[in-house]
Design a protein that fits this description.
This protein is mainly alpha-helical and about 160 residues long. It is about 40% helix and about 10% strand. It has a two-stranded antiparallel ribbon.
């Protein structure tokens, strides 16, 4: 039996009712295997496509892909905004607050960058300072676990 994707979309579907045999796709085209038909494996009389005459210049051929089956009509899609009510003043308030916080964050990032420039100018290592800050932010128990694992790995690698 042939997979549905292997046959063109404009071929008749087997409805299981009136057909007397199985429709299969082979190298010779579609064949109908019937008990009383033209015989098993004989190609159905399908008109061949006319061949294009050969020319001296190569001519761009039109796309001859398989025709797409008409799409089944789907039930009407519901409007996703149908049941949503918007309090405009509240929404505007939230948006403005978020924008202010984003501006403050941008300013703070700029301040932080300037601080690290100062740290480097004084001769300190910014990378080490970042690690110190990360360790200070850790839970003390978590920091002890990390220290113990680092010692274990360093001892194993000596």
């Amino acid at each position: 039996m042939v997979k549905k994707s292997d046959k063109p979309a404009d071929t008749p579907e087997d409805d299981g009712g009136t057909a007397t045999g199985a429709l299969t796709w082979g190298s010779g085209g579609f064949t109908t295997d019937t008990a009383s038909g033209t015989g098993a494996g004989e190609p159905d009389p399908v008109p061949a496509e006319p061949e294009e005459p050969e020319t001296a210049e190569p001519v761009a051929k039109a796309k001859r892909g398989r025709r797409k089956a008409p799409k089944a009509e789907l039930p009407e899609e519901k409007d996703p905004t149908a049941n949503i009510s918007v309090n405009t003043t509240e929404l505007v308030s939230y948006v403005e607050r978020i924008e202010r916080v984003q501006e403050e964050i941008s300013e703070m990032k700029g301040d932080l960058k300037e601080l690290f420039v100062e740290v480097k100018a004084k001769g300190y290592s910014a990378a080490i300072l970042r690690k110190v800050l990360a360790r200070r932010a850790m839970d003390p128990e978590k920091r002890r676990e990390v220290d113990a694992m680092i010692e274990l790995y360093e001892e194993a690698l000596r």
